[in-house]
Predict the 3D structure of the following.
Amino acid sequence: MGAATGQLAPTEEIQHVTEHATRDLLRLATAGSVDDGKSTLIGRLLYDTKSVLADQLSAVEAATLARGGGEVDLALLTDGLRAEREQGITIDVAYRYFSTATRAFVLADTPGHVQYTRNMVTGASTAELAIVLVDARKGVLEQTRRHAAITALLRVPHVVLAVNKMDLVDFDEATFRSIAEEFTAYAVSLGIPDVTAVPLSALAGDNVVDRSTRTPWYDGPTLLEHLESVPVGRDALSEPFRFPVQVVIRPRTAEHPDYRGYAGRVASGVVSVGDEITVLPSGKRSTVVGIDTFDGPLTEAHAPQSVTLRLADDVDVARGDVLVPSAAEVEVGTDLVGTVCWLAEKRSVLGARLLVRVGTRTVRALLREVNARLDVDTLTVDVWDGVDTLHLVDATDTSSDIPPRALTLNAIGRVKIRLAEPVVLDEYATHRRTGGFLLVDPADGTTLAAGMIGATLLDRLTPAPSAQDDDDWFAGSGI
Amino acid sequence: MSTVTLTQLDALESEAVHVMREVAGEFERPVLLFSGGKDSIVMLHLARKAFWPAPVPFALMHVDTGHNFPEVIEYRDRVVAQHGLRLVVASVQDAIDDGRVAERADGSRNPLQTVPLLDGITAHRFDAVFGGGRRDEEKARAKERVFSLRDEFGQWDPRRQRPELWDLYNGRHKPGEHVRVFPLSNWTELDVWRYIEREQIELPSIYYSHQREVFLRDGMWLAPGEWGGPRPTETLQVRTVRYRTVGDMSCTGAVESTASTVPEVIAEVGASRLTERGATRADDRASEAAMEDRKREGYF
């Protein structure tokens, strides 16, 4: 083993693990480039939580030797495919697993350079926390702002700024404070509700898992302490109930000849036996008379439990329908306005016939308008005033005075889409679990874009006169 | 504020059930790969939960190398009968007899499973194939999607995989293509064991400590058989062992263990310093990229 491993020897006995019945789960994403030490940080988290096993370590040692030796590089623990190792790049989101006595972690490791938007949007979509890495010597860079912006766009509720390589600035407090203040001010301006900054050294291990003796001026949590303590539960009572129906359960067996239940996962909120519900988009009403599971009936279910609901009336319910509280006002319609991140090599084409996937429903759709684009380098919005609608502009017009008003891979833009059938149009800003959608190419099934219904960060960054008011659009409870 | 949180196992279970219901809702002919190993047994358990009180709405497929542990085949047939399931067997021996694949010099049939697997998928026109793969198993799997698109040759192209956002899984595919679906993607080996403990799921007896005649090869305890062991330099001896994975008998190694109950196994796995593949799969040791290569060819 190389010199680095001298510092890496596990200090504690491996914990035996039978008492974790109450352990919960946090999904997180990391953003940063190789240069920021991201792979080393993840390697450090895996290593110090004893999530790296002997054969994985020896594989990394062998790989290090094959590349000419030197110190065992923790970053190699997270480099997945041979193609990436040969080229020294990371091509896609990789998922890593580590755990402590109180919490298990699913980490979406997103590369910082190539296709960063596509990959980071993907990783952030399911994350409840994002770690944004900066190099203490370089401070907040353009790419740091980009990472913060995508985190805000996807409404990841918790952000950690990991100020890495503190060992290279002599653990200087002023350096850390200055970076933390600059980033926090920027994140707040994007509407990110919770930012925590941690000074650390991934390479040496300071403040990652174990508290560093070299930052006596820092009294906040180590990175892992923070990851373990950030709340993952949801405020179920304040969230609106949503239940996208996945399949209709009809056993037609001797034991259950007439059983009819609607299987799905509670996307948000709570449902109880006796609740009045409305089936959307049909608008039919009924009452929940049973919440069934394999393990027995429940009186209530909350997100994200998978259950089967039975209704009092024989109303028509199918896959793609959404059950909502009858008392709630829920928008249903065929005109979808939102922000999309383009994920495919194929560019957007106005008037293209697409499929929109929202919840468990897939409907035919028409891309009618692309009217703004977010420049993720400058974080400014180019507004394409109403001229570029389907009716006025030929999508193949390439004359030079018309901006290329198409969305290409990694572009983020505002779109208007006409749907062939009505769907529930929950705003992503307040309904993170139901306000997202996919655009799919009906020809080959390619996922073209991921979208968020309603106003997003893009609208917040749009200049006057179409600028949004200063309402705190991030204040909603949707997580 | 009334904060509610699912435990990790409840969250993983709910996610897997959600994935299985998505497949039932979106595909015509799903099938569940069933080896009799613990991951496929957990998948079957989750499928029973997902569709209760209806029966599991898809068949099981066993890719049979012909080098089976008798305890596993007995378990398989008993479970199929007990739950009224349909079992499809894709046989490596048949593929060898038909000349579709050739026996290897080292006798291992694990790498030969790909051809009968793909032939079985084609013959039965399966469009979604549940596999028990987990992302924690191996580096090439860390980038695997929950819904993994395969072309008509069953090949996996990491650059063609679709991004997966939120819980919106895109299973659209062209005729001849199919989708591999991994409901246990986010589970670790320990999660699987804790779930087996919590749900009191029965496993084949080879997962627990027993006396077996074995010989040592490359640091692994292998069971003897006509497939190539022991060699003259290798000696048979009776050891107290158990298996951490179920696979082809020729290349699935036993580990020395006295763990005879689920809690004892959990304690052992928790303390283990080897991943289960590293400890027990000779074929993954061939090269660091062995799994990446086999995945590209259409392996599980």
